[in-house]
Amino acid sequence: MKVTAIVPAAGAGKRMRQTVSKPYLLIGGKPILSYTLDALNRSDEIQEIIVVTMAGEIDLCKKDVVKRFNFNKVSAVIPGGEKRQDSVYKGLKSIKNEVDIVLIHDGVRPFLSQRLLKDVIKCAAQFKNAITAIPVKDTLKKIDKKGCVEETISRDAVWHVQTPQAFDYHQIMEAHEKASKDNFYGTDDAGLVERCGYPVKIVAGTPQNIKITMPEDLTMAEAILELSSKD
């Protein structure tokens, strides 16, 4: 079974209020992206990694991340698109060899465990499409346009979605091609697959698998690193 990982890492991260793009901000003295690629590079299930980054940061990615840390499974570093979905589609179109499963993982989710990687790939091999998610713990309220509560939503069937997400190559390619043709943008890749009528299975994720989006997330990331170093 051939598995190719696509890593969208083309976000400027304006909310971080930093001069450096999110994937290249440092935690524990190393770029965020390096932790993500290290997890993927060490996986026995993954044969190839394609990184999609900002056009002006391709050399930075190759020199300061891929070559510096010897991520030998990275076959290409390509320029991204205007939005994340465009970047993933570019990654899909850049796959040159026959592949069974495409795994998509955010470049700024650095705490990816090998167990989670194995679980989501195994689930995709069996059911075609699988995503990681964690159950919602907080009470959910649906509100109207005036900000008043309309109803309380049951948490039993609601999950917070994460990456990695793993898909049958032909189905995820079809989903992105259809979305591009229809000029449709979803909030994640699974949404595009669901739009084509294909089922998607849930794999239990982990709370530590955070996406670094806001400045306070860097503090949380440093805390997770410190705790993991004590294990």
Write a concise keyword list for the protein shown above:
231 residues; 11 strands; two-stranded antiparallel sheet; Spore Coat Polysaccharide Biosynthesis Protein SpsA, Chain A; 7 helices; alpha/beta; globular; seven-stranded mixed β-sheet
Question: What can be said about this structure in brief?
Answer:
This protein is α/β, with parallel strands linked by helices.
Strand content: 15-25%
**Major β-sheet, in short?**
7 strands, mixed
Q: Which strand order spans the largest sheet, edge to edge or round the barrel? A: 5-4-1-6-10-7-11
Shape: globular
Q: Please give the radius of gyration in angstroms.
A: 18 Å
Percentage of helical residues? Answer: 25-40%
Q: How far apart are the termini?
A: 33 Å
The appropriate CATH architecture is: Alpha-Beta Complex
- CATH fold-level assignment: Spore Coat Polysaccharide Biosynthesis Protein SpsA, Chain A
Count of folded domains:
1
Poorly predicted runs of 5 or more residues = none
Secondary-structure-based class equals: alpha/beta
Count of discrete alpha- or pi-helical segments spanning 4 or more residues: 7
Identify the CATH class.
Alpha Beta
Look at the structure and give the mean pLDDT: 94
Succession of helices and strands = EEEHEHEHEHEEEEHHEH
Give me the count of strands: 11
Name of the CATH homologous superfamily: Spore Coat Polysaccharide Biosynthesis Protein SpsA, Chain A
